[in-house]
Design brief:
heterodimer; A: 281 residues; 7-stranded mixed beta barrel; 27% strand; B: 301 residues; 6-stranded antiparallel β-sheet; 18 strands; globular; MtLigD_Pol-like (chain B); ATP-dependent DNA ligase (chain B); ligase activity (chain B); ligase (chain B)
Chain lengths: 281, 301
């Protein structure tokens, strides 16, 4: 079972060694600026604590599959029969093909090219999207450490554009606990205007102001995230643990993938051989 | 247009357009192609012999559209051997048989870079000489993944006391052959066997293998195409050139070579160029020889 969130040390960076490419890597390439090029691998920095459930058929615990349903024809539609449409106004669509989408997608790239360095303090937290770590690969350890140290001391971060999958991301690379962290940032156009939600300006009395200041001061503490945990998640995990002890899990029926039957003798012989092969490998 | 008359075994043959660059990005001309097939002839001919040839012709080179030609061109020299083949109950069709060097040269001169043959001989069209497993990597998978699958298949067959042989497709995948060479075998047998094997592979290595044709299900996996075991289908002949960007050959590999390439994770190693093909064949002989002579029986069929 996965460890619950509170058991994990939240502030541990990945080990900074010239590791072989880890299977958990999302991307590998080089991070570069001026004459520096450091081979790195991108790995996850967080894992959300959401408990995920599978939808099952109540009758036999078969995991359910999603199918596309066409309400107008009242039938199941195969992936080959689907196209991609952009809703230009309600119920009016423009088709965009796979090729067209590809033609406007950025070319895959093996580099994170830092184009400028900024002061990290200038970055409003609303821009932060998703955190990752960069792990040095063989041959990159020395310059990696150097970059970590210098950025740490100056509290600077590198801004870069970076293509992952089909999207081009706007990212900040900064140092964190001896490692390089990469944050994808929101593009400024994604940040919603907030003028509408501001209350009307009214005069605030000095007395009220100082009273509130005092109450806040009384409640001041150091930022200590370990004190907080997702209690619902922990309760769910406890519940699952308890139920597993009380009651054996129900096994889902094996899904038959065959269209036509293969001769039973042949299948049995193949299965027997396969077991031996797997044992010897 | 350049023309050159050559004489092979007393038969006259006109070769044309020798300087035509058929692999433009590589500078590989018709003359190079003829030279390749001349030097590889002793190895490829046993595998072409007695089989109805499907030509895949690239008259304007590999960057332009090729076309398949099943019918043996009517302007053929009188000495080209043919067979009358009835495809799908239609009219019988005259197809070429490539049994000798002169016919091979004539075919190559038609810019038929790719030579495709069925698994059965023309005289016994319903008797496959081997079971074939066409290992085709989906998007996100590569030839090394195919090699992994091929090695598992080799071990599986060796448990069943069947020897198997592997060649590159000359494109992205691998072809694994289990020779049978028994006149009792039918395509129904080989297809049933291949399908059962593909499905058991999918069941045991779901991350690596799919037995399903659908593109979506092939992503990051190796598709074991069992449906090639059919009298209407053809396979690229071993030692044939492929009409890709470079003059790459469908070439047999020793199992050790496959193990090595997996160990080194080097997909490039599994692409054999024409020049390497000739020198390797001359040095090691025909690694695919057993495919056309070894007699084996499929279990439980």
């Amino acid at each position: 079972m996965r460890k619950s969130r509170s058991d994990r040390t939240p502030s541990r960076s990945p080990s900074v060694r010239g590791d072989e490419i880890s299977p958990h890597g999302i991307w590998s390439g080089t991070i570069s600026f001026s004459l520096v090029a450091i081979p790195v691998q991108l790995v996850k920095a967080v894992e959300t604590g959401r408990v995920s459930f599978r939808m099952l058929h109540s009758e036999d615990y078969s995991p359910l599959a999603r199918k596309m349903f066409c309400p107008s024809g009242e039938k199941i539609v195969t992936p080959e029969e689907t196209i991609r449409g952009y809703e230009i106004e309600p119920d009016k669509y423009i088709e965009i093909t796979e090729e067209e989408l590809e033609s406007v997608s950025p070319e895959r790239s093996r580099t994170i090219e830092i184009v400028e360095f900024i002061d990290m303090k200038e970055v409003d937290s609303i821009y932060y999207d998703h955190p990752y770590y960069l792990v040095p690969l063989k041959g990159g350890e020395k310059s990696y450490r150097l970059l970590v140290e210098v950025m740490q001391r100056t509290n600077k971060a590198g801004l870069a554009k970076f293509v992952l999958g089909e999207r081009e991301y706007f990212v900040a690379v900064k140092s964190r606990d001896g490692a390089l962290a990469l944050f994808t940032l929101h593009y400024s156009k994604e940040i919603l205007p907030h003028e509408d939600i501001l209350p009307k300006e009214e005069k605030v009395e000095a007395e009220h102001k100082s009273r509130m200041k005092k109450s806040i001061k009384k409640m001041m503490a150091d930022f200590n995230p370990e004190k907080y945990a997702d209690e619902r998640r922990e309760k769910i995990m406890e519940l699952i643990k308890k139920k597993t002890k009380e009651k054996a899990p129900v096994e889902a029926p094996e899904v038959e993938v065959e269209e036509g039957e293969s001769p039973a003798d042949l299948v049995a012989a193949l299965e027997k051989s396969m077991r031996k092969v797997k044992k010897n490998r | 247009m350049s023309r050159k008359i050559v004489e092979i075994s007393g038969k006259r043959l006109a070769l044309s357009n020798l300087e035509k660059d058929l692999y433009p990005s590589y500078g590989f001309t018709k003359a190079h192609i003829l030279e390749y097939y001349r030097r590889i002839a002793q190895f490829i001919l046993p595998h072409l012999r007695d089989r109805a040839l499907t030509l895949k012709r690239y008259p304007e080179g590999v960057e332009k559209e090729p076309f398949f030609e099943k019918r043996c061109p009517s302007h053929r020299p009188p000495w080209v051997k043919t067979a009358e083949i009835r495809l799908d109950d239609g009219e019988p069709m005259t197809m070429c048989l490539v049994d000798d060097l002169e016919t091979l040269m004539w075919v190559a001169n038609l810019a038929s870079l790719e030579l495709h043959v069925p698994l059965a001989k023309a005289a016994s069209r319903e008797t496959p000489d081997s079971v074939v497993f066409d290992l085709d990597p989906g998007d996100g998978a590569n030839i090394i993944d195919c090699a992994r699958v091929a090695l598992i298949l080799r071990d599986l067959f060796s448990q069943l006391r069947l020897s198997s042989y592997v060649k590159t497709s000359g494109k992205k995948g691998l072809h694994l052959y289990v020779p049978l060479n028994r006149k009792e075998t039918t395509f129904e047998d080989t297809k049933t066997f291949a399908k059962a094997v593909a499905e058991i592979m999918q069941k045991n290595y779901p991350e690596l293998v799919t037995a399903r044709m659908a593109k979506k299900q092939r992503e990051t996996k190796v598709f074991i195409d069992w449906s090639q075991n059919d009298s209407a289908k053809t396979m690229i002949c071993v030692y044939s050139l492929r009409g890709g960007e470079k003059p790459v050959v469908s070439f047999p590999l020793a199992w050790e070579e496959l193990e090595e390439s997996v160990g080194q994770n080097d997909p490039e190693k599994l692409q054999v160029m024409y020049s390497e093909a000739v020198s390797k064949a001359e040095k090691n002989g025909d690694l695919f020889q057993d495919v056309i002579v070894k007699k084996q029986k499929l279990p439980h069929l």
